[in-house]
Amino acid sequence: MNDTATTAGDAAATSIPAGDGLIHVRLLPPEQLTLYQLNFKYPLKLISPAPGQRAKSLTVFVLSYGGGLVGGDQVNLRVEVEEGAKLCLQTQGTTKIFKQTPESPPTAQRLTARIHAGASLLLLPDPIQPFADSNYLQHQIFELADTTTDTSSLVLLDWVTEGRAARNEHWSLTRFESRNEVFATTTTSTSNTQRGRLLLRDTMILDTATDDIGETLRARQDGQTIFATIIIRGRVFAQLIAYITARYTNEPRIGQKRWDTDDDSRRHSAVEVAARRSGVLWAASSVRGFLLVKVSGVEVEGVKVFVRGLLSEVDGEGVPAADGCITAAFGEGMFRCLE
Amino acid sequence: MHNDLTVHPSDNQTPSSAGTEEAIRDEIRQLETQLAAAKAKLENISPSPDISPPPLPPETLHLWLLLADSALPIGSFAFSSSLESFILHRSQTPSPQTTPRASLTRFLRLSLLSVSTTTIPFVAAAFRDPTAAALLDDTLDASTTCQVARRASISQGRALCSVWDKSFATSLLPANNTPTVTFYKPDHFAVSWGVITRRTGILPDTPYALHQVLFVFLFNHVKAVLSAAVRLSLIGPYVAQQILAAPDTRAMVQAAVERGGKMAVEEAGQSVPALDLWQGRHEKLYTRIFNS
Q1: Is A254 close to B280, i.e. CB distance below 8 A?
Q2: CB within 8 Å: B270 and A214
């Protein structure tokens, strides 16, 4: 982490409610990316390494004091990425969700991000790690200003692990809900921009209250220790979307044949064999202008390698593409949370 | 828990208290007999409407027989709701303990849980307010993020609307004196099920009617999965009927009705994430019989 990190926002933010934060990125002429506003209040902490002169994007680390969130913590982050600006949100280590105490409400993290025309947002955090008896609600809303020519671009990764496996936590949480919603914006007659049509809503609900169906949450997760969702949209990421779509089209078929040993129309690549060995399952869907990827796996590390491979557009041998879409648009260091 | 009537072990040892206990028990029996007699008297004077469910009028029975018929031309036989993919993913990691029947009943449990939290809220909302159908349809479209599930839902939803246009609108409605109105025809199965059951004019906007709407929708889902299981040779037709007739199955459907019926569409979501993977990967099967 750079020592000249911007943390001045903390002092200026004494009047905002606990857990609130604001990141506002602006592109000043000719090509200078600036943090127009950066505010936050405990337990939320935002750190932005000072960007270089020719930085293609700004990075902000979204952190919490103590490296996790306890019962009742409410984080409320608002993000504004103005025209021409690029912002990458990352974390430093998994977001740990501690157990809920009897008197505390659920832990909640809310994010509302508006992506203007010609702006892009990368949200590439580490996975959420819900501990035993935790109760967590995550609600992320993305507002895209330009959906006609698709210049508001977004890559979001949302993933959750089974907990602390070393402490024999395997989906031992009480409740976990993660909701990702993408809206278009509309401009009213008074030229106020407001939230418009719902474009996509992807929700995962893990709830031990439904264990009464005769199968526990742990069993329902079917041996998978991690679930990841990737949502991609926008012109900036057209090459990435094409890459992932092609990979899914060429994905080895499933069926009676043993695909890794039987004679098939082609040899399977090292990347496909590695994914297979670490129990990665994945599916990609093109829906309503988005590419939506679901990944699960029996080991966290294998899924990390796989997701990093997808986002860095690796070839069959696992070498990232030299002209990878994310690195080309945002610069180096975007995949820290995937390493 | 503190209770004045609790008999302490020490009290029990004295013979006199044992006699008192017997007397109290006698009194309770006597009072219970009196209570039952009084209730029966009341029942004879005014049968209470809230104990027994309302009777099923013949036109309602007629509607349910039409909609629960496996010959209803909406093509449900073409979809396995990802059972086919689930079974093929299983067979890659064979475990000798699991019989096909056990796999199937497990799948049914998971599938019903998933449908109850992703789809049922939309059926219920469309039935309660059929005028909101267009918005509900668009919201469900935005919420169905798996393209295989989406194709299955749209195919059956449009087919149900065709049945309405080509059959119900000209025969079921005049028979029940329901005026024909034009309304938005939803694409998605869940929304069209809610809208069409309501637009027949046969069912009132009551919780009891809504319960039937959801129950038949979910029971049809179970039937479609079981019919797929028979064609996948997991079970035979007699076992399929055994499962369909089992009280456990009824209880599972009932629980799914109750769970999904009280969820708002904004709260809907996938409660069995593994199903998303199986469903999405259905297109990756070497050979497949079904479209989902």
Answers
A1: no
A2: no
Other residues' Cβ atoms within 10 Å of the Cβ of residue A264: 13
From chain B, pick out residues whose CB is under 8 angstroms from the CB of A213: 109, 112-113, 252, 255
Whether residues A256 and B259 touch (CB distance < 8 A) is answered with no
Output the tens digit of pLDDT for each of chain A's 339 residues. Answer: 343 444 445 545 457 899 999 999 999 988 899 999 999 999 999 999 987 777 899 999 999 887 899 999 999 999 999 999 999 999 999 999 999 999 999 999 999 999 999 999 999 999 999 999 999 999 999 999 999 999 999 999 999 999 999 999 999 999 999 999 999 998 877 778 899 999 999 999 999 999 989 999 999 999 999 999 999 999 999 999 999 999 999 888 876 555 555 545 557 788 988 898 889 999 999 999 999 999 999 999 999 999 999 999 999 999 999 999 999 999 999 999 999
Q: Does A280 map to a domain?
A: no
Other CB atoms closer than 10 Å to residue A186's CB: what's the count? 12
Classify residue A170: in a domain, yes or no: yes
Q: Which among A214, A285, A294 is the nearest to B109, CB-wise?
A: A214
Taking the domains of chain B in order of start, what are their residue ranges? 9-45, 58-284
Residues of A within an 8 Å Cβ radius of B:
177, 179, 197-207, 210, 212-215, 220-222, 224, 227, 251-257, 281-288, 292, 294, 296
Q: In this complex, do A254 and B281 lie within 8 Å of one another by their Cβ atoms?
A: yes
Whole-number Cα distances in Å, A274 to A269, A271, A281, A304, B44: 9, 5, 12, 12, 75
ipTM above 0.85, yes or no: yes
Answer whether 0.90 is exceeded by the pTM. no
The answer to the question of residue A298 being in a domain is: no
Domain range holding A110?
9-250
- Residue A155 phi/psi, 5-degree rounding, is -125, 125
Number of domains in chain A: 1
> A274 in a domain, yes or no?
no
With contact defined as beta carbons under 8 Å apart, do B118 and A204 qualify?
A: no
